[in-house]
């Protein structure tokens, strides 16, 4: 599956917005998975949560800087929300 996605991206069968959709979907899947396994595997859940946040961060950065899919105000709002102290208690629920 991963090889097919890589091949499709190389051949430009998958567009830029679809690539970003795949990235956002992967990030949210990691965060949701971390949320469901947090009771039994607390340390591993924290690692998965950090990976999900990193995937969302890098996907947003690439969408803004390389593909110009977002305007500046949306990207700045995302970065401010990402580093906001109010965001961390929400992610620990």
Summarize the structure.
By secondary structure, the protein is mainly alpha-helical. Helices cover 75% and strands 0% of the residues. It has one domain (15-91).
Detailed description of the structure:
The protein is 75% helix and 0% strand. The protein has one domain. The chain is mainly α and 93 residues long. It starts with a helix and ends with a helix.
Structural class: mainly alpha
How many H/I helices? 5
Radius of gyration: 15 Å
Mean pLDDT: 79
Distance between the termini: 33 Å
Query: Given the C-alpha coordinates, what overall shape results?
Result: flat
Share of helical residues: over 70%
Our count of domains comes out at 1
Q: Kindly state the number of beta strands.
A: 0
The main pleated sheet reads as: none
Stretches with pLDDT under 50, minimum 5 residues: none
Our estimate of the beta-strand percent is: under 5%
H/E element sequence? HHHHH
Defining traits:
single chain; 93 residues; mainly alpha; 5 helices; 75% helix; 0% strand; flat
Question: What is the element layout, followed by pairings?
Answer:
Blueprint: H1 2-10, H2 16-36, H3 42-65, H4 72-82, H5 87-91
Helix pairs in contact: 2-3, 3-4
